[in-house]
Design brief:
The protein is an alpha/beta fold and 488 residues long. It is built from 16 helices and 23 strands. The protein folds into 2 domains: 6-257 and 464-487, 3-Layer(aba) Sandwich (Aldehyde Dehydrogenase, Chain A, domain 1); 261-453, Aldehyde Dehydrogenase, Chain A, domain 2. The protein has helices spanning 42-57, 59-62, 65-81, 83-94, 98-121, 159-172, 187-198, 217-223, 236-247, 271-283, 300-315, 335-350, 387-390, 406-414, 429-438, 475-478, and strands at residues 6-7, 9-11, 14-16, 21-27, 32-39, 126-130, 138-146, 149-153, 176-180, 206-208, 229-233, 253-256, 261-265, 293-299, 354-357, 377-380, 397-403, 418-419, 421-425, 443-446, 461-462, 465-466, 479-487. The protein is globular and about 70 Å long. Nicotinamide-adenine-dinucleotide is lined by residues 153-157, 162, 180, 182-183, 212-214, 218-219, 222, 233-235, 238, 241-242, 245, 256-259, 290, 392, 394, 420, 460, 464-465.
């Protein structure tokens, strides 16, 4: 028997093999083969969608909110009971450091079930008694129905967290799902199927098809005529393709897309906090969080000191074994992605950037020399129109630009097609409120980054997305209102 680890589809409560071939899952920290992944064909996607439809029409659709809620809390407990297994699988697929995955990815992945399970129980139904002349004395009430069978398409940067962020509310609302995890990070989505079985989630409620995007599982799923809606997180350009694929049959989409996020640092900021916070907002997860800052606008009196301290911090980054608590940065996700990011490093230099730190590939040593490591990089001196300042890079790099006036900083922060996130650093509350009001993004942090209560809305403006997920805002996508009108 072969010792090769295989990652399969999970359909109707069981692992399923086969499809239109296989692809390799590579460990980004070492560049070595991790597992063989089965790639779904149209037939397997049909099977997964049929299983989800049948589960929707079966026992799952008849469960009370209370019972469903209890089951989803058990899913969260099930993830936590196998915390170390999920942690190891996520680290093997992404190379991210254990400190990050154990504090964010896995616990938040589990919390995505409890939060939505609890929220739904308290969600009200609206009713209006029309006693105006136009209402003719009628009682109107609306109930929320599950949208149906949902296609869930996920990225690789926070695989379990961003997948459960959709599956949690989808199941809480009574939908059934077919998940297509990223081809780079297939493992934890498949493992979650085992947890679903262990806690008694009916077969077919949660299905996973493995594969790529175009001409593969992603496209087959999003084009599938029996899928009632698609929730997607990934690149803006992929979002555009998926919207076209979803247009057939007028299927609704929820889109969480890319960003080119700006941070604004005022001279009155607590500099220690602003530097430490910007270190996280720029370099966390090796710059592979949609919310990472890739542009910093720093008020001129503190500009030089800020650049020096940020560059020093970045230059001291510890690389190495992702399972070591000493390791601060993991690698990029793939060789192809590293080529893309290094391309921006070259382009920035050619465009005249001053490189304060980084700009290349670090020597990590030992087992890790074959991985997709990259140096955190700080630039100044670019034009606002240069590619490294305009385009989403999704790597550990930032351009820092001085400003003199608040309005100038706001104008530069807003001069982008994207509108996902911003961080403002100031001790002046009035200034913080003013700038938060003026920057056109879905989420603004003041003197912090990546703190968000799961009950609050999340999503982007402009090319960063359509719709809001999070808390009860997610119910707008995951349910449909049905209005019932009774003549009194
Ligand atoms: P991606 O768009 O390349 O891939 C995302 C998923 O879409 C993958 O599962 C992929 O297989 C699938 N896919 C690709 N083409 C498809 C098609 N034609 N039809 C159906 N599915 C298709 O994104 P990525 O590289 O995995 O992730 C990084 C990107 O995601 C960045 O742009 C980042 O900003 C964005 N992102 C956004 C958020 C957010 O919440 N706004 C969160 C995380 C990542
Ligand atoms: O956990 C969250 O709040 C969230 N939505 C994270 C998104 C990360 C994007 O890469």
């Amino acid at each position: 028997m072969s010792n090769v680890k295989e990652v399969r589809h999970f359909i109707n409560g069981a692992y399923v093999s086969g499809g239109q071939g296989e692809f390799e899952n590579i460990n980004p920290a070492t560049g070595r083969f991790e597992s063989k992944v089965h790639e779904a064909d149209r037939n397997l996607v049909d099977q997964a969608v049929a299983a989800a439809r049948s589960a929707l029409n079966g026992e799952w659709g008849r469960l009370t909110v209370e019972a469903r809620s209890k089951m989803l809390c058990a899913v969260a407990d099930g993830i936590n009971a196998r915390f170390d297994e999920f942690l190891e699988a996520e680290i093997a697929d992404t190379g991210k450091p254990v400190n990050l995955a154990s504090h964010i990815d896995i616990p938040r992945g589990a919390a995505n079930f409890t939060v939505f399970a609890e929220l739904l129980k308290a969600f009200p139904t609206e009713a209006f008694q029309q006693d105006t002349p136009t209402g003719y004395g009628a009682l109107n009430y609306s109930v929320r129905k599950p949208r149906g069978v949902l296609g869930v398409i996920c990225p690789w940067n926070l695989p379990l967290l961003l997948m459960t962020w959709k599956v949690g509310p989808a199941l809480a609302c009574g939908n059934t799902v077919v998940v297509k995890p990223s081809e780079e990070t297939p493992t934890t989505a498949a493992m979650l199927g085992e947890v679903m079985n262990d806690v008694g989630v009916p077969h077919g409620v949660y299905n996973v098809v493995q594969g790529l995007g175009p001409d593969s599982a992603g496209q087959y799923l999003t084009e599938h005529p029996d899928v009632d809606g698609i929730t997607f997180t990934g690149e803006t350009v992929t979002g555009e393709a998926i919207m076209k694929q979803a247009a057939r049959g007028i299927r609704p989409v929820s889109m969480e897309l890319g960003g080119k996020n700006a941070g604004v640092v005022f001279a009155d900021a607590d500099l220690d906090k602003a530097v430490a916070g910007s270190m996280r907002s720029v370099f966390a997860n090796c710059g592979q969080v949609c919310l990472n800052t890739e542009r910093l606008y720093v008020e001129r009196p503190i500009f030089e000191e800020f650049v020096e301290r940020l560059s020093k911090g970045a230059g001291e980054t510890v690389f190495g074994d992702p399972m070591s608590t000493e390791t601060a940065s993991g690698p990029l996700i793939s060789e192809q992605h590293r080529e893309k990011v290094l391309g921006y490093y070259e382009k920035a230099k050619a465009d005249g950037a001053e490189v304060h730190t980084g700009g290349g590939v670090p020597g990590v040593g030992g087992d890790y020399d074959g991985g997709w490591w990259i140096q955190p990089t700080v630039w100044t001196g670019l034009e606002e129109t240069d590619a490294a300042v305009k385009e989403e890079i999704f790597g550990p790099c930032v351009h820092v630009q001085p400003f003199d006036e608040q309005d100038e900083a706001v104008a530069m922060a807003n001069d982008t097609d994207y509108g996902l996130a911003t961080s403002i650093w100031t001790e002046n509350l009035t200034k913080a409120h003013q700038v938060a009001d003026q920057i056109d993004v879905g989420i603004t942090w003041v003197n912090c980054w990546f703190l968000r209560d799961l009950r609050t809305p999340f999503g982007g403006s402009k090319a960063s997305g359509i719709g809001r997920e999070g808390g009860q805002h997610a119910f707008e996508f995951y349910t449909e209102h049905r209005n019932i009108c009774i003549q009194l």
